[in-house]
């Protein structure tokens, strides 16, 4: 995988624009052979890291779900969704007003 291919792939996976410098740092870190390309074993190492990041994201999503599910019945009702969103927005607004 070349640097441009890595950039496109990471942007697709992360759904965000990444700087050349960020991509170069990733490439330099995982390109252990130093040839400017990711070989199969180097890519596998990078993919394992991505999988761990995905696990963390899933755990965070479950935590947020649990916060919204006030009665812990495994379902978020419209009322719980409204309360959860209001709580999140008031926290964000108070953080902004303090800053």
UniProtKB/TrEMBL annotation:
Keywords: Calcium. SUPFAM superfamilies: EF-hand (SSF47473). It comes from the Eukaryota. Residues 18-53, 56-91 form the EF-hand domain. It comes from Thalassionema nitzschioides. SMART domains: EFh. One of its GO terms (molecular function) is calcium ion binding. InterPro entries: EF-hand-dom_pair, EF_Hand_1_Ca_BS, EF_hand_dom. This is EF-hand domain-containing protein.
